[in-house]
Amino acid sequence: MSSIKNICCIGAGYVGGPTMAVIALKYPEINIDIVDLNKERIDLWNSKDLSKLPIYEPGLDEVVKIARGRNLFFSTNVDDAIRKSEMIFIAVNTPTKNYGEGKGMAADLKYVELCARRIASVAVSDKIVVEKSTLPVKTAETIQTILDNTGNGVNFDVLSNPEFLAEGTAIDDLLNPDRVLIGGRKNKRGEIAVNKLAEIYSRWIPIDKIITTNIWSSELSKLVANAFLAQRVSSINSISELCEKTDANINEISKAIGTDSRIGLKFLNPSVGFGGSCFQKDILNLVYISKSLGLNEVADYWEQVIIMNNYQRTRFVRKIVKTLFGTVSSKKITILGWSFKKNTNDSRESAAIYIADKLIDEGAEIYVYDPRVSYEQMIEDLNYVSSRTKLENKKFLKFCSDPYEACNNSHGIAIVTEWDEFKNYNWKKIFEKSIKPASIFDGRNILNKEKLNKIGFNYYGTGK
Ligand code: NAD
Ligand code: UGA
I need a surface site. Which of 67, 71, 96, 450 has the fewest CB within 10 A? Predict the structure, then answer.
């Protein structure tokens, strides 16, 4: 039985919410308060109608239904939650800095620092403080310094416990993780703190999957894991262009190389480029850290992963424009899928944003359908890129709640996210209402080329 009776998690986002919900599910004896400054988000977490939870994640509603109000609570009362807990997770956002030194590269740690300062000022008993956010290596030192110098004389033990869940499969990833990583100080207090956290996870995770390391290895491993995963996507995407020039087929290549157990089959799906809030941010951060340490070759090596990713998005747009006779000006182009991958409503850094933006630059009129992302979010995403005014974005990007309506009278249909439902559409019906010659640009290779060709579509896959 854990000696921890109360946990506080600061940050009720894509990580804080699901992670704490699963701990609460597995450990009813521990009281968990998830707190956030964003009242609107907290209200949604507390909504009676579980379809209104602020994030869409398969299976999450079931877990929240069981634990919420029992030992899982969502509130904006940060101070109370800090005060009563023995263990505090920091799961706030760590976006790429958009100002000052390190702009566009370094992680912005202002939210993390605010948390540390809040904990220090409020805590009147010893606390274990767990870094759940993804952080640059050595951040634990900063957090420890703030806590020790601004606190009320109580003891703080900082741990690193990075999260490896992927969106869309978060609940399964949390219930059956490949591993849990805990980094702590190599002294008596550090070891006790590591054991307390490991004890919680061991309720449902086999002990041999709980890896403990020194705190810096843990922080750095998280950045490296994301960099390696993203690197695989960029590697396969680079080969996809080579395939298009040589009549080789990227899916056959993925299988041929992935069956080598040293390479493995996962993360070899060609695409319009990776998206999501983390891959780019974490690689940029790795590049920044390397450059700051004078490791220019290391920095250049990893930066290439991002360069390739940007190129893959641009290449997709060029293919559309070239195929549609060199211009998409005043032509209706349909985008199916706006989220950065299937089974999530998250569109942060989604390739769809950049593809739509470039197509609008070319004069196209974009009609988008996505099963989970709202029009407001799409417009917000486009505004963030700052290419034109909000009014212009609204003029050129239209939303359709019905995919068939989105495809009506379209010159070209771009599949940008791999939502399963796209496979089952009545493509014959869509063809009949398309402008001819009708073209499909399958950025995810999820549709059947032969079937679509038979219907009459010109089909353009990725890497085949
Ligand atoms: P998010 O933006 O969805 O959630 C962060 C939340 O923290 C927001 O709701 C924000 O209001 C809140 N917050 C910020 N400052 C606060 C403060 N001082 N006090 C209280 N609340 C505050 O972010 P996320 O996607 O959950 O990511 C959080 C961290 O986890 C990031 O470092 C990210 O890199 C990492 N991570 C994310 C994922 C993922 O799949 N999204 C996976 C692994 C790791
Ligand atoms: C990723 C990692 O997989 C998680 O382990 C990590 O915890 C998380 O980042 C994080 O730190 O935020 P996530 O971004 O949610 O998870 O989703 P992924 O499944 O990794 O996909 C990322 C992007 O790569 C998506 O746009 C996806 O479509 C793309 N991708 C993925 C490909 O284009 N091809 C592939 O073969 C795999």
Answer: 450
